[in-house]
Amino acid sequence: MIKVAFFDSKEYDKREFDAVKGSLEIEYFETKLRPATAHLAEGFDCVCIFVNDNANAETLKILKKVGVKLIALRCSGYNNVDMDEAKRLGLPVVRVPAYSPEAVAEHAIAMLLTLNRKIHRAYIRTRDFNFSLSGLEGFVLHGKTMGVIGTGKIGQAFVRIARGFGMNVLCYDPYPAGGFDYVDLNTLFKESDIISLHCPLTEESKYLINEAAIRKMKKGVILINTSRGGLIESDALLNGLIKGKIGGACLDVYEEESDYFYEDNSAKGMSDETLALIISRPNVILTSHQAYFTREALGEIARCTVDQIREQLKR
Ligand code: NAI
Predict the structure, then answer these.
(1) Among 10, 154, 257, which residue has the most ligand 1 atoms within 8 Å of its CB, making it the best to mutate?
(2) Is 39 labeled as catalytic in the residue annotation?
(3) Is-same-fold flag (3-99+295-313; 101-286)?
(4) Which run of H or E residues covers position 250?
């Protein structure tokens, strides 16, 4: 029997994993994995973690010590795992390389359309029988230039949709694929009306969008980030929004999100002042890392994760 310690679990995870777990024995912990909670994995063969669990070197050492043999990420990004330390400890790490690129691309577009056409503000107004259009003006996407950073599975799905709107799409990726118009990063910054991030968070891509990058962009540029919060320097973003250099931001991720996302903080208030100020701006839409959150993706994540655990720990 393979025993799995499942961290940061929600009712929808339990529902999907229980449906496909077969002979795996899964214990669902609500807490996130971090050094202080790693000991909970004692007696388990595998830990199953998500985007805001923290598998740093300290956590991994404890997991190894208590007998864990496999780290199974139920997501595609793996920036929250110290991969060098995992290798050193001989702890294999598996992830779900692709579950529904369209889910993320569609969410990015949903946020863009909402922000640009001010649907979020119109929704609140009409519920209050306020039918004024003042301040709700948007712009037409057709003919505008979309800059896409990272043309992997999600980036490519996003490009297909943007082209469907009749947009001119410029791309940047250190490993270009066929069929896209690639430019260097500076040209992309300079020429794009909207910029969408679809690259992983690595040492090289951390703070890809910083003060210097924002300076190169068009006034009024809209930024979309459904990738990882650390790609954008939050203070630089806030500054750009305040000065009007950035016309709007669609954010599904935030660099310090692990302290807040996926939890109800409404009674506590927000202690991260930068996040509070970003959210308070009328030209920002922020969702809580939910771009993947579709029926299709949840099912695929559960199936793929369970298969990988079985394959790795063959028992
Ligand atoms: P992928 O591995 O298919 O594509 C990533 C692309 O980024 C590759 O083409 C790679 O060459 C490129 N890249 C790497 N470093 C780059 C850099 N410095 N600048 C520009 N491009 C760079 O990954 P996929 O499936 O498209 O996912 C992309 C990211 O989306 C993931 O790393 C993850 O962080 C994020 N994600 C977010 C989700 C959400 O719910 N918000 C769900 C799933 C993924």
Answers:
(1) 154
(2) no
(3) yes
(4) strand 246-251
Distance CA 63, CA 27 (A): 16
Q: Which residues surround ligand 1 with Cβ inside 6 Å?
A: 76-77, 98, 101, 104, 149-155, 172-175, 198-202, 204-205, 226-228, 252-253, 289, 291-292
Q: Which CATH architecture has domain 3-99+295-313?
A: 3-Layer(aba) Sandwich (3.40)
| Best CA proximity match to 60, nearest among 74, 47, 73 | 47
Q: What's the pLDDT band for 99 if we cut at 50, 70, 90? A: confident
Q: Give the DSSP H or E segment for 64.
A: helix 57-65
For domain 101-286, give the CATH superfamily: NAD(P)-binding Rossmann-like Domain (3.40.50.720)
Active-site position among 74, 107, 198, 289: 289
Which bin fits 292, alpha (ψ -120 to 50), beta or left (φ > 0)? alpha
Q: How is the chain split into domains, by residue range?
A: 3-99+295-313, 101-286
Which ligand 1 atom is nearest residue 292's CA? 40
Q: Which of 16, 233, 257, 300 is catalytic?
A: 257
pLDDT of residue 78: 95
Catalytic annotation present for 289: yes
With tokens 């996302």, the residue in question is 261
Average confidence (pLDDT) over 297-305:
96
Please say if 256 is a catalytic residue: no
Tokens 């388990």 -> residue? 44
